[in-house]
Amino acid sequence: MTDIPWIRPELAKPSPYRWQEGVPDDTVARFDMNTLPRDPAWWPPIAQRIALASVASYPEADYAPLKRAIAGYVGVDPSRIVPTAGGDETILLCAWLALGRGDRAVVARPTYQLHATSVLMTGAELDLVSPLPGPTLRLDLAAMVEKADGARLVWLCSPNNPTGEEIPADVIAAICERCTGLVCVDQAYLELSGVDHLPLLDQYPNLVLIRTFSKGWGLGALRVGYAITSELVAGSLDALRPPGSLSTGSALGAELACAHAEAMRADAAAYRAERERLAAGFRTLGLELVGEAGNFVCARTPWPGAELFARLAARGLVVRTFGHEPLLADAFRACVATPAQDDLLLAALAELLGRPTPRPADPDTSPGTFGRAATTRRTTGETSVAVRLNLDGRGIVSVATGVGFLDHMLTALAHHALLDLDLRCDGDTHVDPHHTVEDCGIALGRAIDQALGDRAGIQRFGDAAAPLDEALGRAVVDFSGRGSSVVGIAFRGNQIGELPTSLIPHLIDGIAVNARATIHVDATGSDDHHVAEAAFKALARALRQAWSPDLRRGGMIASTKGVL
Questions:
Q1: Using CA atoms, how far apart are residues 335 and 34, in angstroms rounded to an integer?
Q2: C-alpha span between 437 and 503 (Å, rounded)
């Protein structure tokens, strides 16, 4: 339907904001959300506090504790802070406050889609400013300054999404001087990159800075944003906000997060470094960069966006394309994920482009931010094994050993342990699988040991049971620092596929000894395939429990000796 007679014409055919559409159910990694890939390490205790808060009542309407916390973090008086349900509510409130029918608002292209949509919602005139000529889509800032004369609202985004361009302070000042209404600068990515324009607020009472806890803070699910502006404008925005639009849990979470600003800044530095690595990988592959800022990189490819999306989605990788913006028809945006996920994206693009894969990430890079990761390699006259893993992953698995049932068991182990695992083995399987199984167990165990470090703060112990139809597996794990195993798996036959069943206890022992863990595994059943799989699923869940952080223990080692 092209016309809907019951609603305003300018809203009858909007281009709605969505994250990437058509995402397959079996996605491996998402690069389209513009959020961080991992919860902050300091988040779990805050989540526990939120869980104890009452859900029976509305939140306090003034959000005074949150205002004070944000004001302390930013360094302004609380009267200049307006908390909102995400930065998006701030955007809508600013448009509603500044605009009516007959007014004009200025928005640059390309930029965040909601800026233009917020103008259409008010019935005001939308004055779009096209970019300067050229493939990098630099904003026409001179035209923005000129068009600010007589405008009731000027939208700026710094750094701009998705071109990454910074808006200089002198341009913002010139626009504030010419605009007869509000000048709103969306600084959603400020913690990740960008120039802080807070000093301009004292000079220009019509300036509104919009920020969020969704990006650099890594709290996108809370949907907490805020405005920083003059006390006069803040009071008007506060009065316009729907009562209780920000939930009690979200407000408390953001309030408590402000005490972790230093840890957030350290994480932001790690994400910036990873973004630079991702951008360098794109350049190595010959891609033309449109922009790089915050936690994202935007680049052009030889294919239309829809075609690139389909090719990558078939490989379990989702990027952001721009079907609503013709200026970016051949472009995509990728947000920083974990280094292992970013390497998957670079490898997939290299395959599509027919170019060598860029060098993978160093696993020792910022383990506190990206999780406990490790890389090991074992090369003998019989095998060559390479292992990359992250204990704090999401079960992203790629295993190739040349032994099908071994691949199947290691994949099940990583998937159910939520272990990101890339394991490759080139072994003498023409002889038999023995050396391959043995060396895969050794390399995997060493990688786990390396990723655990001094083992401070982990649960240490884990136990689990897992059924598979008639079979039942049980496993108990202790990251004791002493490697040993006791395996009692009751197989009926001597072979599963090309793998001798006698090698399965050998594999578990190799993992245990080299991970310096005590592992007990037993399993029974009438189908050997089921028996083995139940055993590995139980082992996976026990491992995951044992290496998980113990929130009550903090950074202490779970041993009366003080060491493992």
A1: 6
A2: 7
The position carrying tokens 């609202």 is: 153
Closest CA to 190 of 118, 247, 261: 261
Q: What is the pLDDT of residues 227-242, one digit of tens each?
A: 999 999 999 999 999 9
Candidate from 13-22, 166-175, 191-200 with smallest mean pLDDT: 13-22
Flag whether pLDDT at 297 surpasses 50. yes
- Whose tokens are 């491992």? That residue is 543
Q: Any idea of the CA torsion for 394, 399, 403, 409, to the nearest 10 degrees? A: -10
What three-state secondary structure class fits 261? Answer: helix
Would you place residue 27 in the very low, low, confident or very high pLDDT band (cuts 50, 70, 90)? low
pLDDT tens for each residue of 489-525: 999 999 999 999 999 999 999 999 999 999 999 999 9
* Residue with tokens 């190595």, as numbered in its chain: 284
CA 471 to the chain's CA centroid = 37
Would you kindly state where each structural domain of the chain is located, as residue ranges? 39-262, 266-353, 372-547
- The radius of gyration of the chain's CA atoms, rounded to the nearest angstrom, is 27
Kindly give, in sequence order, each residue whose CB lies less than 8 Å from that of residue 13, ignoring residues fewer than 6 positions away.
Answer: 2
Domain 372-547 top-level CATH class: alpha beta
Contacts of 401 (CB under 8 A, 6+ apart): 407, 410, 423, 424, 425, 427, 436, 440
- Do residues 126 and 155 lie in contact, with contact meaning Cβ atoms separated by under 8 Å? no
Half-sphere exposure of 518 (CA within 13 A, CB side): 10
Q: Cβ contacts of residue 514 below 8 Å, gap of 6+?
A: 441, 442, 443, 444, 445, 446, 448, 449, 483
For residue 24, pLDDT over 90 is answered with no
CATH class for the domain made up of 39-262 = alpha beta
Cα 469 from Cα 82, distance rounded (Å): 56
d(C-alpha 21, C-alpha 369), whole Å: 29
Q: Residue by residue, what is the 3-state secondary structure of 538-563?
A: HHHHHHHHHHCECCCCCCCCCCCCCC
Q: Pull the structure tokens for residue 538.
A: 């139980």
Q: What are phi and psi of 323, to 5 degrees?
A: -65, -20
CATH of domain 266-353: 3.90.1150.10
What mean pLDDT is predicted for residues 460-468? Answer: 97
Give yes or no for a contact between 458 and 396, defined as CB atoms under 8 angstroms apart: no
Parallel/antiparallel/unpaired status of strands 420-427 and 397-400: parallel
Spatial separation of the C-alpha atoms in residues 82 and 236, rounded to whole Å:
10
Both tokens of residue 129? 């400013």
Element (H, E) at 270: helix 261-284
- End-to-end Cα, the chain, rounded Å: 68
Tokens of 200: 């301009």
Rounded to an integer, what distance in angstroms lies between the CA atom of residue 226 and that of residue 251?
11
For the chain, what is the total number of helices (H) and then of strands (E)? 17, 23
476 to 167, 286, 449, 510, 561: CA distances (angstroms): 57, 49, 17, 16, 21
Q: Identify whether the C-beta of residue 477 lies closer than 8 Å to the C-beta of residue 539.
A: yes
Short-list 503, 293, 327, 269, CA closest to 409:
503
Length of the chain: 564
